[in-house]
Amino acid sequence: MLLSLSIKNYALIESLEIEFSNQFSIITGETGAGKSILLGALGLVLGNRADLSVLKDKEQKCVIEAVFSLSNYNLEPFFVEKELDYEAQTIIRREILPSGKSRAFINDSPVNLNELQALSVFLIDIHSQHETRELLNEEYQFQIVDAVAKNEKRIISYRKGLSLLNKTNKELTKLIAEKESLSKEQEYNSFLLEELLAANLKVEEQAELEEELEKLSNVEFIKENIDKALSLANEEQLGTIITLNEIKQSFQKIATFSKEYNDFHERVTSVSIELQDIIDECYSNSEKIINDPERLELVNTKLQTIYSLQKKHQVTTIEELLKIQNDLDSKVLRADDLDTEIENKKGELEEIKEKVNLVAELITKARNEAAPILAKKIETILALLGMPDAKVFFEIKETESFTKFGKDVINLLFSANKGLQLGAIKKMASGGEMSRIMLAVKAVLANYSKLPTIIFDEIDTGVSGEIANKMGEIMKEMSKNMQVFAITHLPQIAAKGNQHYKVFKYNVKDDTLSELKLLNNEERIVEIAEMLSGKDISDSALNHAKALLN
After folding, report:
1. pTM over 0.85
2. Where are the transmembrane segments (predicted)?
3. Cα–Cα distance between 525 and 529 in angstroms, integer?
């Protein structure tokens, strides 16, 4: 419920603070006095977008603050979900800065417009003239039938199931597409895999084979140079080993004279030992070097196979080939496993579809039971509003496909007079009739909806006299279950309110300001009299106003 509204620096409003009751409140005022400004300010609090044009003083920020009582509407889960502080009296503040930036706060916690709009859905229904066209909307027709059918929990369950059904269906489609793609490549992938497996590749094998090929291709040249090295090292008179031994002996003779000469001796001894090891290994290696054409051919063939595979797969290493081999192996195995996965997914899909279908059937059953009750209630109210022969019918048909509304399509049919066939409401109802039908719908929903506040913005357009009086009575009856505001030009409706607020403009020097004032009883009589007779208020208008208020 809206407890109070504070507006600063918005359009024609310099500063305004007003409190509201939980009953039936009337707002009146001349055309252009600022009623739309008031709704615009409230709309900003509820998350509508704004620009700098709303600033009265372009150098100052605009601040709009509304206080709502939430204690009876079970909104704590919303605040927990959004990680906001819950207060029984929640304050929503909107600021428009001169820079053009906008800020929003719920209980002093910064929020974005999406969060503000999400909360506003639970707070206020602002119904203006053009919104009677909601009646033509399939979604709105489902909403009003489902409210009477008490389908809220079923709809939530159904939509969760539908979301899972769509998700599972996408997964199945993806698996089938993957299967088709792999099936086309299966034979080629198997061939490539067999080719790689046949090569029996090993990590680092390529470098080893290339080194071995170099040795096998130069056997004679290698043996010749090793033998030459051995000969130079072991030649009887000038061999390297003999010369090195003589050097070692020379240093040995003077090693005791200083540390420096002893180091020379030790280093030459070390070189002598290392050279002897090299010579011994060369002897062993020389004996193993043989000309092996068969091994040469085998190594060359294996390398050519590796080079060919690398070229085919556009890589340069065996490691990359082995990765491709693993990928191909996975693809081949994946193709074999997909059939099982697809069958399992189909079974899962059918199981979900069965559960969703069951909930959809419960929704349809509840709708079919509620629709005639809703239609009868609307017809009863329409009779009070001067349409005694009006007929309303919610045509609900089952379909095979799942939509967000269930497995139904809906069509609101209407007839205003006897002898007329029921037809689609958009073809059968005039503008004035649409306003009365919408009021009837809202009146019925007031007994089912948990919405705390509704604002009717000139829903009485096109009616007068006794019909206007009945409209006022219906809105007053609605206020027993919720907070109701009516912005009206009709005295019959204005007289029904528990409180009466007047919007008016006035001039201060060269400035025009708009104000909202709660009228006392005497002021209210004058206002209603003026609505009856205009600016020149007659005694009969005052008496009529008093009669209406009584």
Report:
1. no
2. none
3. 6
